[in-house]
Design a protein that fits this description.
- By secondary structure, the protein is mainly alpha-helical.
- The chain has helices at 25-36, 48-59, 64-76, 88-109, 126-137, 141-154, 157-164, 170-177, 179-188, 192-216, and strands at 6-7, 10-11, 82-83, 116-117.
- Strands 1-2 form a two-stranded antiparallel ribbon.
- The protein is globular and about 60 Å long.
Length: 217
């Protein structure tokens, strides 16, 4: 059950010929708009929602365990847990912006993650890892699709969960994920190639947020 999308009166299907069954009318209408916007040749690059839906319908249901584990692996070495040793301004900035998210995670999901300075691996408490597993597995295929994609871009399961659950916007999550890059750019100047890559990732994350919000309506 779910909302279908009709193209010229025929139901839209995934590449493997599975009919669309979408969780909300809003997402179905947005998918239809993507298809209406195509010219004589279909350009998948201009159809981010369609790509995410195809993943949610085709890939995730049969691969929930590896998809969930991919996101959970980022939680075991989460970006926001690894702190700079110096300079003090960066140390303070990370604490100011990342600590509230760790507090939110502990309150919301019962997962209190440990932090450390430097690049040495941080062993996260077993109870925190179990709490994260429960949080990730609780989501349906569409939410898990967005969570997996967002965590990959952000390098952080904490930030991805906050995005999924409306604690952060895509722009806020990306800004928090790139604190170090922004600090370095302010100190040493902006690298055009690196900035172009960040801009692409930020735009991709915005589409993931749109996908999640439409699916939740």
């Amino acid at each position: 059950t779910g909302f279908a999308v009709l193209l010229d009166g025929r139901p839209l299907k995934t590449p493997s010929r599975t009919a669309y069954a979408l969780p909300s009318r809003a997402l179905a209408e947005a998918i239809a708009a993507e298809w209406r916007g195509q010219g004589e040749e279909i350009d998948p690059e201009t159809m981010p929602l369609t790509r995410l839906v195809n993943t949610a319908i085709e890939r995730v249901p049969a691969n929930r365990a590896p998809v969930a584990e991919q996101a959970l692996s980022l939680g075991k070495s989460d970006l926001v847990c690894y702190r700079a040793e110096y300079p003090e301004t960066l140390v303070a900035r990370q604490a100011e912006h990342w600590d509230p998210l760790l507090d939110w995670l502990a309150e919301r999901h019962g997962a209190r993650l440990a932090t450390g300075q430097g690049i040495g691996f941080i062993d996260q408490p077993a109870e925190a890892q179990m709490a994260l597993e429960k949080a990730v597995w609780a989501h349906d295929d569409f939410a898990l699709t967005g969570l997996s994609a967002a965590s990959s871009i952000l390098g952080s399961l904490v930030l991805a969960l906050a995005l999924l659950e409306g604690r952060l916007s895509a722009g806020e999550a990306f800004r928090l994920a790139t604190l170090d890059e922004a600090f370095q750019a302010a100190q040493w100047g902006e690298d055009a190639e690196a900035q172009a890559r960040l801009d692409r990732l930020k735009a991709e994350l915005a589409e993931i947020e749109r996908f999640l919000r439409l699916a939740q309506q």
